[in-house]
Design goal:
eight-stranded mixed beta barrel; 46% helix
Length: 745
């Protein structure tokens, strides 16, 4: 009887001469081959496995080929090469499922043969063919990675095909498991979350690289330690230790999330806010074998959430509390004051002339100025008070008082002094003041809205009184506020309905007595109030920004009237138009002027733009380009109210000015005993030196006229010659020569 081939899970060897059953029981093959048969039954449809036999003995190769061809579960595709080099060449082309190799070949011998094959195809199963005397060498190859060995004389055994097929299938399963495991390992090591697993006793079994970085524990150091030691968590709000979620997961067998404000305490003591979840691990029987917890660093997320929450209640530019937060604090303060019979003061601030700086130097400089202002405001109040930016250049301060309002007085005075100091920003020395209105709880209002509204009203009174000042609210201001609001509403309607008319005051050449020009002055024909003079509505128009629209109406109307007079042959004289600071700094001012000239077909030389000295000098560097653009249009330029500002000869020489108008305050105080004569005389001389015409405003007496003639002032304007009159009457005055002044006496 033929002695069977002995097959082990790792190798096939020649057995002692015993029965097949003894061999199977001795080496535990019964279950192995039962599983093998079942696997083969399930894979009968699979393509034939390719076996590469490498041996110099053709007889052995033929025996193996015949045995595999007769396999019950289907034949093998058997290939044979007689030496190592040919076998290696075949393996390089791929498609071989298992290699059967004789270690002793014509071109290789011993373990070197196996090593050469294994280094080329480490994932392909290799079995060694040997006889008894070479069995030690075969056993050595098993230690190096061979799947087993087959002893000569037992190649035809029917168990060999099954064993080979099982080895091939097992190797494929191992390869698939390895790839799956490697995929999981790479995934776990590459994800941004920390992953940590434990056994059922809550002892750490695994950490990925991110978990190592976040906990400060190396994988090998952490393995076997309690989860609470490696993943140490505390409650971010109470600072108390938090029960580890893994313990709860294993106890309850359910997924759960970490506490909302969980903080991970690293091994080195550093704290990291974390969040995520934990889940149990079950075996095939459904029993819990451990748990896995995933966690991520949410420092940036929470910081972003905190920043968003901060921005929701604070001004983005200055960092001060915004209107929402200020209103909340004021509401709390008034509630406290009501319970304890104390007071709360609200200071409403509006920066004087901020818009001019912002428009002339740009929003970047304007923003930095607002930042500088906010810092100074905070420095002037107590820590218990609140400074808020409502928007634009408006700020509000809440002052906590006792029974009196001395803190509001002190704070207002300190703020005025602090803001009046120069602000040096990007090489610019900026001067700015503020107007402050103050309301007090409970006398000026018992709710937030009323207190702020009344403080705002008081602030407008501070502006009307000359600015750079503060005013406490009183009930009479409410009447003014209502009137102002009504005036603004009516002005908006007036613009739409074109309710404005122009009156003209003549300018007289003092040497010849001829009319040289006219100044256009706006009047409002109110449907109920009748004729409204500029002093009653221009301040409201400037505060509300409506002055720009009104200015365009005046400019076009003046150009149209000048063109009409020229067409009527009434003389070639210039019509001047006053331009406010808001109009001059408006980005569309040059375009509006050009369009007015084009639409009315007026020669630009008959239009004179009057600008106050303070408007020009507020920012000379930005004024000069605008003035040059106007000069390129061909219009004349005049400095109004000259002598009341802070200009210098060096600046005046740089400005393309045609006319200087002496402010009427100097003209009206001219007398033989007044020092103001010296100022008027100096201005006239300055104009002559700069080759500019000089016009005296507000000429009302013969004495003033005599002085101006004596000092060779070019022109005069005032009630001595004529009050401002409608266009029709102005034309009649010219025809009748009524405006010719008396000669000097």
């Amino acid at each position: 009887m033929t002695t069977p081939t002995k097959v082990h899970a790792d190798r096939v060897v020649k057995p002692e001469p015993r029965s097949i059953e003894v061999v199977k029981k001795t080496y535990g093959l019964v279950h192995f081959f039962q599983c093998t048969r079942q696997a083969n039954k399930e894979s009968v449809e699979m393509p034939a496995n390719t076996v590469l036999v490498i041996t110099g003995e053709a007889a052995d190769a033929n025996l193996i080929r015949a045995s595999l061809a007769a396999a019950r579960d289907g034949p093998f595709a058997t290939e044979w090469t007689p030496d190592l080099s040919t076998g290696l060449s075949r393996l390089r082309t791929g498609g071989v499922d298992i290699v059967l190799v004789n270690l002793f070949l014509p071109d290789s011998s011993g373990a070197e043969t196996f090593d050469a094959l294994f280094s080329l195809v480490p994932s392909t199963p290799i079995m060694v063919l040997c006889d008894e005397e070479n069995e030690p060498a075969a056993i050595e190859t098993v230690q190096r990675g061979a799947q087993g060995y087959l002893s000569k004389g037992f190649f035809p055994n029917a168990l060999i095909p099954q064993a080979l097929r099982s080895i091939i299938q097992r190797k494929k399963v191992e390869e698939a498991l390895y790839l799956e495991k490697e995929r999981a390992r790479v995934t776990l090591e590459c994800i941004g979350d920390g992953v940590l697993s434990t056994d059922v006793s809550c002892k750490v079994t695994y950490l990925n690289m991110q978990a190592e970085r976040m906990t400060g524990w190396a994988r090998e150091e952490a393995r076997g330690r309690p989860i609470a030691e490696v993943l140490k968590l505390i409650d971010g709000e109470t600072r108390e230790p938090a029960r580890n979620p893994v313990e709860l997961v294993i106890a309850n067998g359910k997924n759960m999330a970490l506490y909302a404000r969980s903080v991970l305490v690293r091994r080195d003591g550093l704290e990291i806010p974390v969040e995520d979840s934990a889940a149990p691990i079950f075996d095939m029987a459904g029993a819990i074998t451990g748990a896995v917890v995933t966690f991520r660093d949410v420092s940036e997320t929470r910081a972003m959430a905190d920043r968003m929450a901060h921005l929701a209640e604070h001004d983005y530019l200055t960092g001060l509390p915004n209107r929402l937060l200020f209103n909340d604090r004021l509401a709390q303060a008034t509630a406290y004051a009501k319970r304890h019979q104390t007071k709360v003061a609200v200071l409403f601030l509006d920066l004087d002339n901020f818009k001019h700086i912002n428009d002339s130097l740009g929003h970047t400089i304007g923003d930095r100025l607002l930042e500088s202002v906010s810092k100074r405001l905070v420095a002037q109040v107590r820590q218990s008070d609140t400074v808020s930016r409502l928007g634009g250049d408006e700020f509000v301060i809440m002052i906590l008082e006792e029974s009196h309002t001395e803190h509001a007085n002190i704070a207002a005075e300190k703020v005025l002094r602090a803001l009046a100091e120069p602000h040096v920003i990007s090489g610019h020395e900026l001067h700015i003041t503020t107007s402050i209105g103050i309301s007090v709880y409970p006398s000026d209002g018992e709710d937030v809205e009323t207190l702020i509204k009344n403080a705002d009203t008081a602030m407008y009174h501070a502006k009307r009184n000359g600015r750079n000042d503060f005013q406490f609210f009183n009930n009479e201001m409410n009447v003014w506020a209502v009137e102002r609001q009504a005036t603004e509403a009516d002005l908006r309607k007036a613009i739409d309905r074109n309710e404005f008319v122009l009156h003209y005051q003549p300018k007289i050449d003092l040497a010849s007595g001829q009319v040289t020009g006219a100044e256009a002055l706006v009047r409002w024909l109110h449907p109920r109030r009748g004729v409204v003079f500029p002093d009653s509505f221009i301040p409201v128009a400037e505060d509300s920004g409506l002055i720009v629209a009104i200015g365009r109406i005046v400019l076009r109307g003046a150009c149209q009237q000048a063109k009409t007079w020229l067409d009527q042959g009434l003389g070639s004289f210039v019509v001047s138009v006053n331009v406010s600071a808001l109009e001059f700094r408006d980005k569309n001012f040059i375009r509006s002027t050009r369009e007015a000239l084009q639409e009315t077909a007026l020669d630009p030389c008959f239009l004179q733009i009057e600008l106050t000295e303070s408007v020009l000098m507020r920012n000379v560097d930005s004024s000069i380009p605008i003035l040059h653009e106007l000069k390129q249009l061909g219009v004349q330029l005049a400095v109004d109210d000259f002598g009341t500002g802070y200009s210098s000869l060096s600046y005046l020489s740089r400005l393309p000015i045609d006319v200087l108008k002496i402010d009427q305050s100097f003209v009206q105080r001219i007398s033989s005993k007044s020092d103001d004569c010296i100022i008027a005389s100096a201005v006239i001389s300055m104009g002559a030196s700069l080759r500019q015409r000089v016009i005296a405003e507000g000429v009302e007496t013969q004495e003033q006229l005599n002085f101006l003639n004596t000092h060779r002032c070019n022109e005069g304007q005032g009630f001595l010659f004529s009050a401002p009159v409608p266009a029709e009457e102005f034309g009649r005055l010219i025809r009748e020569c009524v405006v010719t002044p008396a000669r000097p006496q």
